[in-house]
Structure formats: C-alpha cells, structure tokens
Amino acid sequence: MSGVTDLPFRMLAWRFGAGFVVTEMVASRELVGNAAESWARLRNSGIDPHIVQLAGREAHWMAEAARIVEANGADVIDINMGCPAKKVTGGYSGSALMRDPDHALSLIEATVKAVAVPVTLKMRLGWDENSINAPLIARRAEQAGVQAITIHGRTRMQFYNGKADWDAIRAVREVVSVPLIANGDVDTLADADEILRRSGADAVMVGRSSQGRPWHPGVLAGAATHPDAAEIAAIFEEHYTMMLEFYGVEVGLRAARKHVGWYLRFAPDLAPAEKAAILTSRDTKLVSECVASAIACSGRDTVREEIAA
Predict the structure, then answer these.
(1) Given this model, what pLDDT does residue 301 score?
(2) Which of residues 220, 239, 270 is at a domain's end?
(3) Which pLDDT does position 191 carry in this prediction?
(4) pLDDT confidence of residue 307
(5) Residue ranges of the alpha helices (H) in the chain?
(6) Within-domain flag for 25
(7) Does the keyword tRNA-binding apply (predicted)?
C-alpha cells in the first residue's frame, strides 16, 4: 500500500473506525540518512496508536531507524517482510527476506532489541510454492520478541494473482501464541468472517479493498456504515484537499491521481474522455468539483452496486 496509506488516507480511515492504521513503508537506511520522503511517511496527526512500518535489508540500519521512529512518537514498529514489488525485493527487502530466514531473524532481533515499544511482523506465506516457510519464521520471530504477526495468504511469486489461501495461514496459527492477523482478498463482512474461521486468526487486515474507500475498514469493524453518493462526494472533496495540503499542489496533484481514479468508480456513467480529462487536469478546483459532482449525481443505488461488486 505504498503510495496509498499516507497520512491523509490514514486520518480518514481512522476517523471512520479502523481499529489500527499503519504507515507506508519507511525505508530504514533512507530514514537514517534524513531523506525527506521517509520523514513524511513517518508523520502522525493524533492517530493512536501510531504504528510505523519499517523496511530494510541490514540489521544495523533497521535498529538505527527503529530508535529514530520510537523517539519520534511511534507506539508500535511493524517490520515489512511482505512487499512483493520488484523495486523492494530487488534490494533484498520486503518478501525477499523470506528467502533467508537466518538473515531475516537478524533484522528482527536487532529491531526488537533497539526499542522498548512493541515490534510486529508482516509477511507472506513464503517466497514461492516450494518454500512455504511462514510458520518457521513466525515461530522464530515470536521467540525473538515479536508481539503480533500478520500473514498475507499468498507467496511473493504470486504477487496479487489468483486467490489468497486463507487455509494456509492456519499453519502459522498452530505454532505461535501471539496475536495473528490474516490478510488477503478481504472485501466484505462475509470475507472477514470466513478468513477468521479458516485461518484461526484473531483479526483481519485489509489493504487493496480500501483503495478509494477509506471508510471500508471501519465498515468491516462495525464502526461505520456504507456512505451514500452525497457522502462519498463529500469524503472525496475532503480527501483531495487534505492531500494537496499535505504534499503541496505540485506533488499533491500527482499523488492524488490514483485516488481520483478509484473514487471515479462511483461515477460509472462518466464518459471515458471525461475521466481522462479529469485525471490529467492541473486545475485542482475543477478536479474537485467535477469528481464530487459526478459521484453525487450517480445516485445511491449505483454506489451500493459498486460497493457490492
């Protein structure tokens, strides 16, 4: 969810009742090197608890970054060993760490020892179908002091293809006693109930199903109801404004485009040429007004159909 769960998105999701929200990946070495992007990803604004996700490939930089994160208000540090993106795995971070459990554990141990706040871990089932080692790593991570574990029910080589294997997550449940969180293809309340039943997990994490729907985790948690068309239009306008203020207009225009595209799913009658014009426009006032109007005019029933799709 890099590029998605920035501070504006997290603030909205939290307000709508998400139990926990986690920052985008903060690259450990870049944070220690004082990279502006890493500091932006670290920012918080009243969300409690403040959970920061760290990524890296070397124990030294993970420990140093963890100390910085803790000193800057993090209540929990989550280690990313699940990202399948080539840019990340090519640097031997994210899910690439699952190819070398001993090395992965050295990062986990260094991070846990560096801070007093809880450290959690997110990973996949394994690198590929021939190396399903999540249970092994999870057991060793618990022994190293990790206090919760999230499993995405795919291997890295599956990326986001096919269907997440919710049953395979149960093998991790059988070897750890810390809270287990299940992730992958959870879009509805029925999905949430089913993944909990089949995996034996204690909680559910959602990612891609919340794109363009910051209220969605709160709905699954029973803390919010599905908004109607007019409410979605208002949420979009607020979200868009927050992004422009957070990034500045120039960067904000680019960062917001993917979100604009997702919100436009709630305006299915908009012509392709009109959508293209909105997505490429540099007139922020025009974008905000056009998207909000298109969503509001789509009608409640259309929005309900999109949510159920």
Answers:
(1) 45
(2) 220
(3) 96
(4) 39
(5) 7-15, 28-32, 36-42, 59-71, 86-89, 101-114, 134-144, 170-173, 189-199, 216-220, 229-247, 249-263, 272-280, 284-298, 300-308
(6) yes
(7) yes
Query: In this structure, are 147 and 234 located in the same domain?
Result: no
Range of the domain at 248: 229-308
The tokens 């963890």 sit on which residue?
66
**Could you tell me if 181 and 97 lie in one domain?**
yes
| Contacts by residues 140-143 (CB-CB < 8 Å, ≥ 24 positions apart) | 140/101, 140/105, 140/108, 141/105, 141/108, 142/176, 142/177, 142/178
Least Cα distance to 13 among 235, 215, 212, 220 occurs for 215
Taking the chain (309 residues) in runs of 10, the rounded mean pLDDT of each run is: 92 96 96 93 92 96 98 97 87 90 97 98 96 97 98 95 96 98 96 97 96 96 93 97 96 95 94 94 95 86 42
Quote the pTM value: 0.91
Residue type, 289: E
Amino acid in position 113: K
Q: Which residues are identified as catalytic?
A: 83
Element (H, E) at 27: strand 22-27
